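Title: Comparing notes on inverse folding

I've been comparing how different people in this forum approach sequence design from structure. To keep things fair, I'm posting one structure and asking everyone to reply with a full sequence. Here's the target:
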């Protein structure tokens, strides 16, 4: 399911690199676009206790004839350290940029997470990368 994983160098002053993970489960696998986005958004808390779902910016577009859903959210990253592990991140000041590309062979999931300044540093590159995706 994890097709690739990349570390993106941290911005000056940040304590960690960003991480881009690419998932592909196969045709009809991996859950719906909405279920995955809800899960990712659920991995963030807000310092003021407000809803991360209400704060998440979700947009839809079309790239190379394929539906693409983008999500952008900042807050405290609270995902499990590893899938199924009881230990969780507790990383305030983090940001998620993600995209789900609905290909004819099933959706591809792109999840970029890291400190806010680092993700800001890489956000345009991430968007250009997603926009470069083509059907083969």
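Reply #1:
Here's my take.
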């Amino acid at each position: 399911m994890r097709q690739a994983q990349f570390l993106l160098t941290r911005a000056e002053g940040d304590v960690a690199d960003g991480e881009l993970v690419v998932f592909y489960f196969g045709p009809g696998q991996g859950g719906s676009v909405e279920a995955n986005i809800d899960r990712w958004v659920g991995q963030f808390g807000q310092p003021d206790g407000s809803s991360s779902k209400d704060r998440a910016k979700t947009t839809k577009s079309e790239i190379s004839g394929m539906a693409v859903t983008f999500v952008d959210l900042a807050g405290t990253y609270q995902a499990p350290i590893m899938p199924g592990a009881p230990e969780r991140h507790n990383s305030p000041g983090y940001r998620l940029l993600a995209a789900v590309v609905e290909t004819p062979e099933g959706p591809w999931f792109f999840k970029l997470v890291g400190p806010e300044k680092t993700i800001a540093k890489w956000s345009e590159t991430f968007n250009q990368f997603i926009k470069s995706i083509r059907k083969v």
